[in-house]
């Protein structure tokens, strides 16, 4: 492969102050990639839209009257008709989405403490939630489109930080302060524990992400390790299979936790965010049990912490069909989006300052909250 074919370009696309300086906990795209939701310490959920031909996000809606404490998580349903938010006030709010309008339709209560995460199943029939109360709850949508509790499991001994669904099957994984990850499946009548892996990390397990086919899983944790898991029998259904660790990558240039991980469904590029404010990019190399994780490059966001990273599920095709968007958020209230042009086997990576034309967009009077990030570096790795 020529160097031209191996080239990857990642540069800052926009940065907006989403919550006037207060911590932003999470950013999540809807499943068409047209909208981005954010949430944070200011008790709000904000909906952002990518403006055609302009390098920034615009806030279209602010939902500020549903929660009494910080909002920790937001999640769109796959059908696009619902948005869920989870809060430190121990509640989950469901918004109905119609013609661009977000209306509170349900408020789910029952957790005894802060709700840390919520996620819709691939079919949207189930909503999983997890909490500081050490439990994972499964809610089921009924014929009236209300959510009712159908199962409550407490396989963790400490705070449950995150839940993630398999991309095609009704299989859930949870991550916890107790260092473990747990898999759950539906047996036809109830939700049960499929597999528990104690000491999955040497510290809190903060986040997990499946690949597009659901054959592999990555987790990140307090031990500044990104770990690759793989199913034992790829021909089996995931709900009947077991998971095992096949590779670890220790981030040696940081002793701070990795908080978030997102796996791009098309390029296979893995992004992580952590306590040092650096976004790192990885790819999987090798085959079978010889697969390993290789760091491609990194971006210093100049923020204290990168709390969340999220790849857009849709191609950024306004100008280039081979570019994708990555969103991140931080403690200083900043939400950033990055344009990524990637190949499956990238060796040379260049980070560039926005062009003069792009800089003028950043400084546009009509959107004064944007600014030109000070990024101008060239990184060549594995050459």
TrEMBL record:
Q: Which keywords has UniProt assigned to this entry?
A: Repeat, WD repeat
A Pfam family annotated for this chain is: WD40
Gene3D superfamilies in the record: YVTN repeat-like/Quinoprotein amine dehydrogenase (2.130.10.10)
The organism's place on the tree of life at top rank: Eukaryota
InterPro entries assigned: CIAO1/Cia1, WD40/YVTN_repeat-like_dom_sf, WD40_repeat_dom_sf, WD40_rpt
Task: Kindly list the GO CC terms recorded for this protein.
Answer: cytosolic [4Fe-4S] assembly targeting complex
WD repeats: which residues?
27-49, 64-105, 108-149, 153-194, 198-239
SMART domains for this protein: WD40 (SM00320)
User: Can you supply a Gene Ontology BP term from the record?
Assistant: iron-sulfur cluster assembly
Family, per entry: Belongs to the WD repeat CIA1 family.
Describe its function: Essential component of the cytosolic iron-sulfur (Fe/S) protein assembly machinery. Required for the maturation of extramitochondrial Fe/S proteins.
The cross-references to PANTHER family, in alphabetical order and at most eight, read: CYTOSOLIC IRON-SULFUR PROTEIN ASSEMBLY PROTEIN CIAO1-RELATED, WD40 PROTEIN CIAO1
The name under which this protein is listed is Probable cytosolic iron-sulfur protein assembly protein CIAO1 homolog
Q: What is the lineage of its organism?
A: Eukaryota, Metazoa, Ecdysozoa, Nematoda, Chromadorea
């Amino acid at each position: 492969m020529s160097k031209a074919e191996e080239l990857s370009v990642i540069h800052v696309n926009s940065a907006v102050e989403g919550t006037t300086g207060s911590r932003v906990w999470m950013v999540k795209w809807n499943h068409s990639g047209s909208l981005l939701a954010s949430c944070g310490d200011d008790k709000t959920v904000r909906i952002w839209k990518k403006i055609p031909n302009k390098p920034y996000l615009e806030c279209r809606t602010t939902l500020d009257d549903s929660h009494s404490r910080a909002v920790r998580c937001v999640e769109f349903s796959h059908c696009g008709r619902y948005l869920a938010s989870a809060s430190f006030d121990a509640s989950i709010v469901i918004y109905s989405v119609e013609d661009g309008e977000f209306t509170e339709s349900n408020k789910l209560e029952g957790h005894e403490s802060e709700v840390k995460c919520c996620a819709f199943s691939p079919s949207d029939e189930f909503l999983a939630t997890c909490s500081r109360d050490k439990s994972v709850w499964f809610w089921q949508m009924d014929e009236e489109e209300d959510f009712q509790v159908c199962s409550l499991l407490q396989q963790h001994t400490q705070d449950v930080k995150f839940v993630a669904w398999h991309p095609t099957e009704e299989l859930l994984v949870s991550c916890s302060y107790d260092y473990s990850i747990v898999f759950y499946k539906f047996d036809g009548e109830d939700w049960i524990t499929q597999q528990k892996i104690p000491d999955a990390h040497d510290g809190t397990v903060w986040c997990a992400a499946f690949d597009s086919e659901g054959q592999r899983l990555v987790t990140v944790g307090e031990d500044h390790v990104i770990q690759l898991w793989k199913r034992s029998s790829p021909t089996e259904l995931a709900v009947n299979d077991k998971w095992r660790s096949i590779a670890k990558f220790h981030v040696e240039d940081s002793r701070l936790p990795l908080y978030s991980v997102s796996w791009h469904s098309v390029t296979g590029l893995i992004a992580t965010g952590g306590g040092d404010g650096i976004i790192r990019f990885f790819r999987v190399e090798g085959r079978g049990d010889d697969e390993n994780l290789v760091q491609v490059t990194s971006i210093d966001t100049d923020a204290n912490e990168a709390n969340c990273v999220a790849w857009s599920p849709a191609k950024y095709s306004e100008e280039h069909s081979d570019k994708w968007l990555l969103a991140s958020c931080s403690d200083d209230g900043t939400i950033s989006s990055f344009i990524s042009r990637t190949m499956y086997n990238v060796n040379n990576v260049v980070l560039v300052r926005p062009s003069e034309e792009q800089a003028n967009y950043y400084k546009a009077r009509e959107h004064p909250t944007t600014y030109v990030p000070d990024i101008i570096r060239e990184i060549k790795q594995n050459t």
